[in-house]
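Annotated sample (chain length 236).
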Amino acid sequence: MDYTNLVLPKHLGIIMDGNGRWATEKQLTRSQGHKAGAKNLKRLLTYIYDKKIPCVSIYAFSTENFKRDKKEVDYLMKLFITIFQKEFLSLKEKGVKVVFSGRKENIPKDVLNAMEKLEQETKDNKQGILNICLNYGGQYEIVDMTQKIVEQILEGKITKEEITKEWIEKNLYQQLPPLDFVIHTSGELRTSNFMIYQSAYAEYYFPKTYFPDFNEEQLDIAILEYNKRKRRFGGN
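Output written by the structure step:
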């Protein structure tokens, strides 16, 4: 689809939900569902950046996901390493800068190494930003941001009167534009603790499609829906 005359989100969020249910309905293992989701993600991101959407945040793994079966979590951690080391080479070639949001605790060292290497290799890229939310929770981000600001007050770097919206944004995991449009696949009608500060005025879209099947055509439909919305930001 030609996006030339469409209004595009400057910052698109994707909650990649439904890999496990997609696999179950096809009588596959949950791991096979995650593998299919990863394959689709690579293809979808290529399409998104080709369409000149500059910033994308994806919900890869929440803090609560560590409660899942250990076998599934271990598979996901190995899958992340493969994705970061091999599958995202095309994004580096496109000039996309990759950053990560979330807590580092509980993430295996080899996964952290792959994350740090990818960030370092893409830090000077200017053609787009991919923010990967891994071991992430929106409430935890606000807690961590608050602790950072309290430390700065105690160190005498700022006063409480200087705490503004801009100061808060500087102390989040990443300094990114506000989310304009958030897609939550699989038909779940919830925000799932995803970037809750940044999505204050985001438009939400809840397709019933499971993430492995959320392809380029499905994204086109979502962007057309976004163009039907009238964003007032609290105004009339």
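Annotation: The chain has a mean pLDDT of 96.
Annotation: The longest helix spans residues 30-50.
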